[in-house]
Amino acid sequence: MRGSSVGAFLSLLMLGALSLPAAGQGAVWWSPGDGTPFPAQLDDVDGDGTTRLLLEGGPMQTKGHPFFEPKGDDGRACVTCHQPSDGMSLSAETARRRWAETDGKDPLFAAYDGSNCPDLPQGERASHSLLLDHGLIRIARPWPPVDAAGQRVEPDFTLELVRDPTGCNASKSWGMAAEAPRVSVFRRPRPVANFKYILAMGFAIDPKVGEPLPIDPATGQMVSGNLLSDRRVLSLEAQMQDAAHTHLGLRQGLTAEEQRQILDFELRLFVARQQDRIGGDLDEGGARGGPETLARSEPGRLGSQGMAVFSEFAAWEKIPADADISPEQRAYRESVARGARIFREKMFLITDSAGINSPVGFGNPVRNSCVFCHNMSQMGMDVAPGQVDLGTTNMPFADPQPHLPLFRVTCKGEPHPHYGRVIHTHDPGYALTTGLCADVGKITLQTLRGLTGRAPYFANGSARDLRAVIDYYERRYNIGYTEQEKRDLVNLMGAL
Amino acid sequence: MRRLIPSLLALLALTPAISAAEAVRFVSCPVYRDTDAGRKSGCWLAEERETGRRFDITPSATKPDWSMGVLVEGRIAEKQDNACGAPLLEPVRVSVLPEMACTRAMIPAEGFPGRRFVLPPRNIRPLYAPDPAPPPPYTAKLFPIPFDFGRDFAVYQQSDWMLVNAATYAKAAGGTVRIIGYAETQPFTLSGQTLAEPADLARRRAEKARLWLVGLGVPADKVSLEWRENPAPLADPAFDGLTETSRRRVDIRVEP
After folding, report:
1. Which tens digits make up the pLDDT trace of A434-488?
2. Which residues contact A403 (CB under 8 A, 6 or more apart)?
3. Smallest CA–CA separation between A354 and chain B, in Å?
């Protein structure tokens, strides 16, 4: 069944609930224009368990819906890169499968962002290697940067190309010296769900920059500042239009009615892991995992002042001796509960990470745990806007990634507080929006729910699986996790 | 506690004379003591080179960066706990000096416990549980906002809280808001270093204050801006008795 279109399930579909097949049978590819209704509850079964999507308010017809209908000339839709079976993102594995099934003809592999560069021979696999091997979509940012109002931003740094394995940054048509100069960076699609939390504002300020929250120029209202890796847009409406132009090839953009329909869908959609093959349902035995808790809870709450982050699994810390569960199930549940404690309580020294150690006065170093940044109850995002440099894209902290471009940033004014005047980076991140060298490598924190279906991780796909995420943090901050602690954290993240 | 008493006595014996409430002001390189009493519990120390006295500067709202110099302005605390292995300054303000490079220095806890993090009183309330608006009557009111030396950054859990208070009052009171930014451009010498703030910092501080007020809902057309150099020190609770630090401030005057 792997690779079947959703249409094959039409006869099986009950609008109230739908289970997609288990691994070995195959995840379902939602093709644009398929017309399959989106159920109120959609269970995606894989080899390790089930990820559940809840559409609050009931099922929805996708026929004619702008999220699901092909737009533009090449048949793409939003759903192309935001697949229900992949937690509303897109895994590299799914991209490879789609390549094999369609011989590279699926609209997913459109030249403008589904290939390493539009001027490469599009029929060749090598021209799509970043998407197929690392799940990366090409993001072409204007250079110099342009702000939300369309005004040119004068950057306080210069940007030079050190290495360009895709050729796109040196391309005469698409590169940094093209008529319309662009910087091509390569990023993972962010999941389209749980927006109640992503848009939530816990406080009116952004302590990381010492200012109030950003103002959406379209509405004049404060916004959370947590959309997209580089915060190049401030609202879902602006994100839709940005995506319509850059990922769907629409010259006219989306109509107001299309935006309304997409917004309605996205704001109703919640995703989380629901069931584990060994541990069973994640909302059993007093635990409150799964997407229902997300749909019911208030967003934007700071875990340190309310419900502790991922304390949904606190009841599994002390499972009664006479609980009617298998030893394996008990061991898994206890591991998840320990993982949540480790996430909150294992302290380590955070060093040289802009957004944490500068400019805000937490100190460099500062002792804290994962929840210092991943501090929003239920979601693990940052209640304050989460632009932070973990080093995933900046040398010397980034893992070697020979497949990615490498840029040399030279600060023209004050040097970067942690890297000095010259920085080498695979992706300047937030600095491509602000034009500030102090922001090089800052990436907006991700949601931590529904993780299992959307590997690889980090914005540049540098962690192939959840264990690789933990291993990166261990290397970066010399945390000293034991092997058991690493397994517990992986189990926790798999249960989210 | 029993093991701390001997160490406290030893500390007092080895430390050149300290007297409670004595004001200290010096430039130095910070030392991080890696104590672990939970989040944000590491200790920050700095030595006054002129006297050889090392102080615990941890209570500052702005913590040091271990690769940069610090300007320390504080008073020796009346109540000493020796949590970090040095006499405590409290109140204390630390300003990071990015142009003064320091060798990174981290020392082990050596038995000192550090302090558990306690949410400071100057913390902004969340949007879902805000403080109530101040009740009338509304009279002219001054909100002085402190800034670290050389910066226009609103200090977390200090100046940001004061800016929110000013905006909340201004919105409730109506009327006009006059913002005056100041910078300490007159050079002063401490620990052999001559320091002076750039003149344009007064303007940048004023503009930053306006960004806060307008961002938090004060009508932009009600806000006026001025900036000046080298104000007289101001005795106000915003500076915790460290009057010298008040030369680097913004005055927000709400006039209903």
Report:
1. 999 999 999 999 999 999 999 999 999 999 999 999 999 999 999 999 999 999 9
2. A129, A130, A133, A134, A165
3. 12
Q: In angstroms, rounded to a whole number, what is the distance separating the alpha carbons of residues A244 and A263?
A: 14
In the structure, what pLDDT confidence band is assigned to residue A73 with cuts at 50, 70 and 90? confident
Residue ending a domain, choose from B90, B108, B126: B108
Contact A364 B124 (CB under 8 A): no
- Tell me the CATH number at B69: 2.40.50
**Does residue A206 form part of some domain?**
yes
Q: Chain B partners of A361 at a C-beta cutoff of 8 Å?
A: 60-63, 94, 96, 148, 153, 155-156
Nearest CA in chain A to B125: A203
Asked whether the predicted pLDDT for residue B101 surpasses 80, the reply is yes
Claim to verify: residue B101 and residue B194 sit in the same structural domain: no
- Which of B32, B36, B62 has the CB atom closest to A361's CB atom? B62
What confidence score (pLDDT) does residue A10 get?
40
Number of domains forming the structure of chain A: 1
In a domain, A179, yes or no: yes
ipTM: 0.93
Q: Which of B58, B88, B108 marks a domain boundary?
A: B108
Question: Rounded CA gap, B33 and B54, in Å?
Answer: 12
Residues of chain B neighbouring A366 (CB-CB closer than 8 A): 40, 42, 63
Number of domains in chain B: 2
Instruction: Quote the domain boundaries for residue B190.
Output: 141-255
Question: Which residues on B lie below 8 Å from A357 (Cβ)?
Answer: 65
Instruction: Determine how β-strand B176-183 pairs with β-strand B223-229.
Output: parallel
pLDDT digits (tens, 9 = 90+) for B17-68: 678 789 999 999 999 999 999 999 999 999 999 999 999 999 999 999 999 9
Q: Quick check: is A74 in a domain?
A: yes
Residue A126: give the domain boundaries. 6-149+168-269
Pairs of CB atoms within 8 A across A/B = 100
pLDDT exceeds cutoff 90 at B7: no
For residue B119, tell me if it sits in a domain: no
B23 within 8 A of B58, measured Cβ to Cβ: no
For residue B84, being part of any structural domain is answered with yes
Q: Looking up tokens 């509405």, which residue turns up?
A: A219
Return d(Cα A171, Cα B235) in angstroms, integer: 62
* Residue of higher predicted confidence among B247 and A249: B247
Q: Which of B40, B65, B215 is nearest residue A367 as measured by Cβ atoms?
A: B40
Query: How far is residue B34's CA from residue B43's CA, in Å, rounded to a whole number?
Result: 7
| Residue the block writes with tokens 């920085």 | A423
Residues B155 and B238 in one domain: yes
Helices (H) and strands (E) in chain A, counts: 12, 16
Residues B99 and B9 in one domain: yes
User: Is it the case that residue A1 has pLDDT exceeding 60?
Assistant: no
Q: What is the pLDDT of residue A17?
A: 66
Distance from CA of B245 to the nearest CA of A (A): 17
Type and span of the H or E element at A475:
helix A466-477
